[in-house]
Amino acid sequence: MKLDDAGGFVAEEAERPLDRRDTYGAATIESSLYEAAIAANVPIDVLMDLVRVFSFDVDFQRDVQPGDRFEVLFDGFDDEFGERVRNGEIRYASMTLSGKTLAFYRHTPTSGFTDFFGRDGRSVRKALMRTPIDGARLSSGFGKRRHPILGYNKMHKGVDFAAPTGTPIMAAGDGVVEMAERNGAYGNYVRLRHNNEVKTAYAHTSRFAKGVRAGSRVKQGQIIAYVGTTGRSTGPHLHYEVLLNGRQVNPMSVELPTGEQLLGKDLKSLQALIPSVDARLAAARDQARLVASNDDGNPGR
């Protein structure tokens, strides 16, 4: 703001030049990925992006164990005083689970659709996400169980994720909305058709997202509804089903087809990118070790 000739205030726009800096975070998980990331000063927005990258391969409720490790390289934008203004895109991410490392690089092939790819050029993206909700607890698995309301053994044809009312639910894959309406014991219910064989269903929701109606198209990761406890439900949760040729199958164990496989020029462009990212990653690791040694009172040599 500045004074004008009449003694009033006039707003003015001031551009602030920002410097892009490689930012690194890594930690060994002791209790949870969230706590390890916070201890490693990984921002929440970057952590959420990291979770989305691995959500196609990792069930964060069951696959992550103490002793597992993550590593991430992302863009940070600092002002002229060296203060962080905002975080940018993840450039590299890896998770080591039970001794097996999954590592992916951000890359944009000639299709124009940016994604994360392994060294072999295979996309991290799968036809379906295993867990279409962030930060939820798997509260009931697939299979025979004693029904909490009916009181007798009954086949549970999906999996339940306990989460607070209003938690966003994402489309597990690209598809068309077949149903978005009240559906008996399911309560507020969404069913998506992904191809001629595969559908997914989301039940007990509190409400549907704007624009989600029969016939509308949705993209993988798009918010389609919100957790609730409508229908035959004892508390807020998402009941999630995968239907293969009309039959419910276990979403946690069904084989999911892999995503895009880069070939030809696209594969060569990824392979040309990887050494430069690896060099930036190595420099970031060295800087993190230097900072850690100085913080411990042992100057780096």
List keywords for this structure.
301 residues; alpha+beta; Nuclear Transport Factor 2, Chain: A; Glucose Permease (Domain IIA); 2 domains; 8-stranded antiparallel beta sheet; 5-stranded antiparallel beta sheet; 17% helix; globular
Molecular structure report:
With 301 residues, this protein is an alpha+beta fold. The protein has 2 domains: 19-126 and 261-295, Nuclear Transport Factor 2, Chain: A (Roll), CATH 3.10.450.350; 137-249, Distorted Sandwich (Glucose Permease (Domain IIA)), CATH 2.70.70. The protein has 3 helices and 20 strands. It has helices at residues 33-39, 44-54, 264-295, and strands at residues 2-3, 9-10, 19-28, 69-78, 84-97, 100-107, 115-117, 137-140, 143-146, 153-156, 159-162, 168-170, 175-182, 188-193, 198-205, 207-208, 217-218, 223-226, 237-244, 247-249. The strands form 5 sheets. Strands 8, 11, 13, 14, 15, 17, 19 and 20 form an 8-stranded antiparallel β-sheet that branches. The longest helix is centred in the last third of the chain and has 32 residues, at 264-295. It is globular. The N and C termini lie far apart (48 Å). The mean pLDDT is 85.
